[in-house]
């Protein structure tokens, strides 16, 4: 049923669980796994000119680290790729190119105003993907432990 699984990753906490679920799905169907990270060109373009090279380098480093994390979680060989552009567009295009059967992505599960103001890459992928999309929400317990860690690291 699933021969090719694409997991989209940006290295964020909300993607960690999606990576695990995608790898489990691939194991169950003995599917090929592709991990994709997209450097958001709009972030670079929106930054001041003097910061663009530094920001681009930082985003590329983050993408490389995100892909390395997926490779470290996998017990099989996976194909990794980095793209530059708009994340949802690039993820959907990549899914077409590799003839994916499913795209797995994380979501923070924002609702209401936050979703409307911030947008959602996962939502755009769901609306435009040529193949089914598996969205995996970060568990509430994971969000709380991350928030607790952030609080404890904040100087008073």
Automatic annotation (TrEMBL):
Which ranges carry the UspA domain?
A: 1-137
What Pfam families does this protein map onto? Usp (PF00582)
Recorded hits in SUPFAM superfamilies, A to Z, give:
Adenine nucleotide alpha hydrolases-like
Describe the family membership recorded for this protein in Swiss-Prot or TrEMBL: Belongs to the universal stress protein A family.
UniProt protein name: UspA domain-containing protein
UniProt lineage: Archaea, Methanobacteriati, Methanobacteriota, Stenosarchaea group, Halobacteria
